[in-house]
Structures are given as C-alpha cells and as structure tokens.
Amino acid sequence: MKITDLRVDIHGRQILKGVSVTLHEGRVHGLAGESGSGKTMTGLAALGLLPHGARATGEILHNDRNLLELPAKELNKVRGGEVAMVFQDPATSLHPMLTIGRQLTEHMRHHLGLGKAEARARAVELLGKVRIPGAGEAYGRYPHQFSGGMRQRIAIAVALACSPRVLIADEPTTALDVTVQAGILRLLRGLCDELGLAVLLVTHDLGVMSAVADEVSVMKDGLIVESGPRSHVLRTPDHPYTRSLLASLPESPLAPAPDEERS
Amino acid sequence: MSLLTIDDLVVEHRSPGRPVVRAVAGASLTVSAGEVVGLVGESGCGKSTLARAVCGLNPVTEGAIRFEGQPVTPLGLRRRTLTGIQMVFQDPYASLNPRRRVGDQIADGLRVARGSTVTPADLLERVGLPRDFTDRHPHEFSGGQRQRVAIARALAAEPRLLIGDEPISALDASAQAQVARLMRDLAVDSGAGLLFISHDLSVVRLIADRIAVMYLGKIVEIGRTAEVWDNPRHPYTQALLNAIPLPDGQGTLPAELPGDVPDPANPPGGCRFNPRCPHVMDVCRDKEPDFGPVACWLHEPT
Ligand SMILES: Nc1ncnc2c1ncn2[C@@H]1O[C@H](COP(=O)(O)OP(=O)(O)OP(=O)(O)O)[C@@H](O)[C@H]1O
Ligand SMILES: Nc1ncnc2c1ncn2[C@@H]1O[C@H](COP(=O)(O)OP(=O)(O)OP(=O)(O)O)[C@@H](O)[C@H]1O
Ligand SMILES: [Mg+2]
Ligand SMILES: [Mg+2]
C-alpha cells in the first residue's frame, strides 16, 4: 500500500497536510507522533472511514487502485478483507450487542465463504492466539463481559479473521500489560515474517516501536517530520521532536543521566 | 488513618448461564491522603473491577471498602460525584457524555466543587489542550485529547480520592510524563489520594509512592516504588519488569510469560501463579500464600 501526499481537512481545518507512507509486504511500518498529530486520521483515510465533513485528497494505492476514488461498494469489499483495521478505541471495532463469536465468524463467512463449524473453529483458534483465556467459552460472551485489554485483543482477532494482506493497527496494545503485549507483538511479527502481512502500526510507545517496527515515521501537526529505518530513527534521530520524545524516556540511550528528579 | 481501606475484597461477576467470574479474589490495599498508589498487573486480572467497586459501581461480594472511615455503598453514577471520589474510566466514553460539549461537562464537575473560581478553559489548559476546545463534542478529539478531557472533568470536582484507570494510555511519552505529574501534584497538594492504574510501568515509577502488583484477582506484591522497581521479589513482578520493551532501536521482542493466561472462572489451586512460575515448589501447588507484602512462598514472613 502506498499513501502519497494525503491531505485531509475537516470543515476547512487542515488535519493532514501531505502525508506519504509506503507499506511493504512482510514489514511493519511504525507511526509515532504527538497526540492529535493525525495518526488515526491517516489510518482511517486508508479505509475510507473519515468522519463526517472530512475531505481527503492525494492517493492511497493498493493493488493498483486508488482507494480514495473507489466507490463505496468496492471499498466495502476491500475493508475487512484485504485491508483490516484495529481501531484505537476497541468500542469502535466491536458491536456491544453481539457475541464476540458472532462478530468473528460473520466476517469470515462473508469474506472467506467458510461454513459455520469451520468459522467457529477458526474463531476459537484466533481467540487463543490473542491470549484470551477459556477461548471456547469466551466465544459466546458479549464485549462488556471482558476487561479493557481483552476487548482490545478481541478487536485484533476480528481484524485478523479474514487473513488480511494489510493491517492498520492503531495503538493496538495500549490496554495491555507488558507480558501480554509481548505475546501480541510476537503474533504480529510472526504474521509478517511467515505470511507477508504488511502492517501500519500506530503507537506512541517507542519501546513497542523498537521491538517490532522495521521502518519508523514520526508525525507532528499533520506532517511526517522524520522517517527511516528503525535503528536510525530511534538511535540517531534527526528531528528535534523525535529527540525530545526519546529524551523523555528514562530507558532510552538518549535520556539524560539517571533521573534523580523525585525521591 | 487511611483515606481508602480495601480489606480482603472479593468481587464476582455473574451472568446468566455462565460460570461465576471471581474477578477480585481477596485483595487488600490502602491509599492515604496525599499518597499516590500505582496498581499494575496482567490484562484481565481485576484492576478495573476493583476500581469500580471502590466507586460503588460493582457490588462487593465479600470483604469491605471504607472511604474516610465510612463503608462504600452502591450508588448511582449521579450521586457518586457527591462522595468525593472521582474516577477516570478506562474507556474515555464512559467518563464523558458524547452528546454534550466538553466545556459544559467540565462545568458540571466545577459545580460539585462549590466556590471554585477555575473555569473549564483553565482546566483544559492545565491538561495541555487549547482553551477553545470547550466548544467541541467528545468525538471531535483524538484518542489522547479525549483522555485529557476526561481527566480535566474528574479534576474539576476536586475529589478527595481520584482513581485513574489507564487515564493516559494514549498519550506520547512526553505528554504522559506531564499529565501524570499534574495528576500527582494536584492530588498531593490538596491532600487527596490517587489510585493510578496503568500498564505503563515507567509512568507508575515516575509518580507512585507505592506500587501494588495484581495477579488473577490478588495483590501479589506491594511496596515502596523504588524497592519494587529495583528489587522485585514476586516472580510475577520480575517477569513484568523484564518484559518492558526498550526503545533502543535493536528490534528485540520482549519476553512473554510461559503458559496460558489464566481464567478467573477457573483459577489454578495453590498459588495462583504456580503454573507459570519458574521457581515453583511443591508447597506452591498445595497452599495459597495468603500473606504480604509479597505473596510468594519464597518470601514467607518469619
Ligand atoms: N471529528 C472530528 N472533527 C474535527 N476535528 C477532529 C475530529 N476528529 C479528530 N479531529 C482532530 O484531528 C486531529 C488529528 O486527530 P487524530 O485522531 O488523527 O490524532 P492522533 O495522532 O491519532 O492522536 P492520538 O495519539 O491522541 O490518538 C486532532 O487535532 C483532532 O482534534
Ligand atoms: N460484566 C462482566 N461480566 C463477566 N465477566 C466480567 C465482567 N467484567 C469483567 N469481567 C471479567 O473479570 C475479569 C477482570 O476484568 P477487569 O476489567 O477487572 O480486568 P482489568 O485488570 O481491568 O484488565 P485490563 O487491564 O485488560 O483492563 C476478566 O476476566 C473479565 O473477563
Ligand atoms: Mg489516535
Ligand atoms: Mg481494566
């Protein structure tokens, strides 16, 4: 997927001012940046899910088609099938009134043409992969019966249900503790390495970025201010904002001497 | 006297046709006035359930919760604001009404804290948002901006106990440090207590006086922040601290805990951590370590 010069404005206010990102097969592109800089908008635009009153220009090429110009019906086919998204707010990914089993299998039966039993088996397997305990029993439960982090993992399972080629994951591990997070990062990395999944990983956590991203872009005010290979951006950043981000992390090599600020 | 005392708390979730989920299975914890307690633990271990019980939003099955010496009773969301406890919910939409301007919602909080001269715009500014965002509705914000609004809303009521359930999980590192410090300062300066639930251990380390580590419904380790951080004793705490991914640009995947994430509807016997513990002994499979500050047979108090 190749995003070129993406511009979005909402009611005349510029939100994205020309964003370009290329996602490659089997690679994770990490997108970091200031809160409110437009990371979520970039992901939403790629799926044609911008909020009301938003206008997008530029190009989002996937399989030689510009997704920005695709009719709604065609786009619907792409979404949830070829290209899937994990939303920042799990509530957006999950319907509150349907069991999670239904939400997982509906997509599969629709996009992959699986039978009922097959779909169920695959759903339970996916729930296990995202570390939901008692997956067989969990299948019949509703979203509100899970913890925040479990809902986030279920949203990941829903996104992966139809074996997408491109995954846009917007802060997919913010509600997870670090050991469960480690499991999810391993799962994503594995899908890239083994099945060639292309991932746009939006995360403000530079530790997560460092663990799985191949390339890293950093956003500020609707623009990408820095972009490059992981080790370059995280070890020898060029932009002052990236440097200030890293400097605020005590574990970073760029952090000032041991913090004695509070004791 | 502690501001908040949680004593051997048990909270169960019951739903028709489903096994009972004992989400909090005998947890004890205190928060003093002017103190910040960080609560960390595995996803699904019962942190939000415990927090909601303190607010009177989840009924207590066994044990007791006391706030300023009084037992906490189930209350509607509305009256809860009068009790001096404010909670920033894990899902910001649970803290905010989607149909009202955020300025008006913050003003509601300010009315609770009678005699305050602060305005909604002041509070937005304090949490790092432009003053003119008061006119917006919650859906017009980015994830991190919405979390800041929820914090401003809670702070407006000048609570004596503030509970933050993953309140800043969507903010970037520098904003996290800034907002976390703000929450700490406001709590400490006004003598309020802060119970801060977070997966971000570096933020907890930055602002908490004490850290409580929860695993499958129980507090398994509690201690002063520096002690727990520098010398974690429970094997679960050790695993947690070891799994923090470092921003070193190396591409190293952090270590996962071995074994399956446990199911609170079907907890293992003995020590709840024993099936995943690298140091497991015979006693761990038989007897639950029902003591503190480290609930582990390797650290039985003498
Ligand atoms: N529905 C909307 N109407 C108007 N402005 C909006 C709307 N949604 C978002 N915005 C604005 O667009 C900008 C970009 O938002 P976006 O959600 O992409 O940020 P983000 O980089 O994902 O931030 P975060 O890390 O906080 O999630 C923000 O300044 C936000 O206030
Ligand atoms: N309404 C409910 N009905 C049934 N089970 C529930 C309900 N709410 C929570 N649970 C279960 O209770 C357990 C604890 O959930 P809780 O939300 O307290 O976890 P948590 O520690 O906050 O996790 P996270 O870090 O993922 O937010 C989980 O196993 C969850 O599935
Ligand atoms: Mg966002
Ligand atoms: Mg929770």
From TrEMBL, chain A:
- The ABC transporter domain is annotated at 1-246
The record's GO CC annotations read: plasma membrane
A Gene Ontology molecular function term for this protein is:
ATP binding
Work out whether the entry's keyword set contains Methyltransferase: no
The cellular location(s) given in this protein's UniProt record come to: Cell membrane
**Principal localization?**
membrane
The family database entries (InterPro entries) matched by this protein are listed as: AAA+_ATPase, ABC_Ni/Peptide_Import, ABC_transporter-like_ATP-bd, ABC_transporter-like_CS, P-loop_NTPase
Q: Where are the transmembrane segments?
A: none
* Similarity-based family: Belongs to the ABC transporter superfamily.
- Indicate what this protein is called per its UniProt record: ABC-type dipeptide/oligopeptide/nickel transport system ATPase component
- From what organism does this protein derive? Nonomuraea endophytica
Automatic annotation (TrEMBL), chain B:
Domain of life according to the entry? Bacteria
Which keywords does the record carry?
Answer: ATP-binding, Nucleotide-binding, Transport
Specify whether Transport is a keyword of the entry. yes
A Pfam family that this protein carries is oligo_HPY
Q: Does the keyword Zinc apply?
A: no
The ABC transporter domain covers 4-241
What is a biological process (GO) this protein takes part in?
Answer: peptide transport
Q: Could you state a single Gene Ontology molecular function term?
A: ATP binding
Coiled-coil ranges per UniProt? none
The family assignment reads: Belongs to the ABC transporter superfamily.
Q: What is this protein called?
A: Peptide/nickel transport system ATP-binding protein
